[in-house]
Write a structure and sequence with these properties.
mainly alpha; 2 strands; 74% helix; two-stranded antiparallel ribbon; 321 residues
Length: 321
Amino acid sequence: MNFIVSGIGAGLVSALLTAVVVKATPLAAILYLLAPIPVLIVSLGWNHRSGLVAAVVGGLAIAAFISPLSGLAFAVITALPAWWLAYLALLGRPEPDGAIEWYPTGRLLAWVAGTAALTIMATAIMSTRGDYAAYYQNAREIAEAFVNLQFPASQSSLDAETRSGFIDVVASFTPFLSAQGFTTVLALYLWAAARIVSISKRLPRPWPTVSELQMPRSISVLLVVAVLLAAFFDGFISVFASALAGALFTAFALQGLAAIHDRTRGKPGRPFLLTGVYLLVLMTQGILVVALSLFGIADTVFGLRRRFGRSGPKQPPTLST
């Protein structure tokens, strides 16, 4: 019964964090963004079945107090992605010597990207009831607001036709950009939840060194396929492909950061170098992410760390970088 009680508690907390978004305040928005964390913590620290209980309880609570559609959205968009990633993180199989081979961190990162893309797709379908025209209209309104903010009509030299075309391009990239942000958020949530559970001594697996994560080569092929589908198909197929491309692009950027962490271990001035990299990412508004993504792709395809060897002494499994 322990996993049921913990799952009920986590589901109610997550539902409360989700429901406060109706207040439409900055604090409510922050609390809403934290809603998946209770599900992740209870799934990692107790049992993945606790996460399923949390998804059901939270969805029923929101359905009862807000609306059935909101309850379904909570389960599909917030709770189930968190449960799924926690479930994968705790997958393991026994080896002949009795040790447990845990699910590789690189594959887990790939699933973070895939989960983010599927969630963006589910959000697009549920928010428009499967009407692609309605979805594109919403995306175009968001893109128009963004363009007007960045390039005010009174100060811009763009004519109406060029401006409209630019808005269409931005609208088509909405799933790509949304998935980029959501992939980063999911990865941070999973790391933070695992850290919290590890401190409480309830994490079943020894969390591997984050800097050693590396996705399989097949993921780079999947990125190419996603880009091609986004370029040559329309409708929700294009939405999902664009979201998947954005999510994988970000996952490779995270791997690029991991490779930098790995290559600088044991080097003098490492903290200053890493701080500089993160500051550049923030100051360039994500432009450096392109370079990190390309570095991550090269690391996956050509095995740069295997080819040139790892830097610094081998460290035991830890939650640190």
